Amino acid sequence: MDFKEYFENVEGTGILSTSDSEGNINSAIYSRPYIISENKIAFSMLERTSYANIKSNPKAAYMFIEECKGYKGKRLYLKMVGEETDENIIEAIRSQRQRKHESKTDETRHFVYFEIENIRPLSG
């Protein structure tokens, strides 16, 4: 599947679900992932619950719900494999993509890499 083309052309809403080392779950609205390679994606993350969770438990799930009639989309099962904290590198990567909603903040931003372990359709 060509995720770069998919996420550039399909409108929808993304939800990232994480849990801490004790299994306490968090789900949050997240933008589309940055496509690094066929089986690797990344998210720009602030130091909030989702980031704290993946630091203690590297597993996550990303659900993308397409904006259409019915239930279409993707579920990506992920494992954190690295992160970038250099602000200049993060901004260079983020500037390559047109952003609909600009979030200006003084909070520390991390660029977190995930390996895609499994892909399933939204339903079924």
Question: Overview of this structure, please?
Answer:
By secondary structure, the chain is an alpha+beta fold. The chain has one domain (3-121): Pnp Oxidase, Chain A (Roll), CATH 2.30.110.10. 19% of the residues lie in helices and 47% in strands. The protein is built from three helices and seven strands, in the order H-E-E-E-E-H-E-E-H-E. It has helices at residues 3-9, 49-56, 87-94; strands spanning 12-19, 25-30, 34-37, 40-46, 59-66, 73-84, 109-121. It has a seven-stranded antiparallel beta sheet. A hairpin with a 6-residue loop joins strand 5 and strand 6 (73-84). The longest helix is centred in the middle third of the chain and has 8 residues, at 49-56. The chain starts with a helix and ends with a strand. The model has no long low-confidence stretch (mean pLDDT 90).
What string, H for helix and E for strand, traces the elements in order? HEEEEHEEHE
Strand content bin: over 45%
Low-confidence stretches: none
Largest sheet geometry: 7 strands, antiparallel
Q: How many alpha or pi helices? A: 3
Strand order of the largest sheet: 2-1-5-6-7-4-3
| CATH class label | Mainly Beta
Number of domains: 1
Report the helical percentage.
10-25%
Output the CATH topology: Pnp Oxidase, Chain A
Brief overview:
This protein has helices spanning 3-9, 49-56, 87-94; strands at 12-19, 25-30, 34-37, 40-46, 59-66, 73-84, 109-121.
Reconstruct the topology from this structure.
Elements: H1 3-9, E1 12-19, E2 25-30, E3 34-37, E4 40-46, H2 49-56, E5 59-66, E6 73-84, H3 87-94, E7 109-121
Antiparallel strand pairs: 1-2, 1-5, 3-4, 4-7, 5-6, 6-7
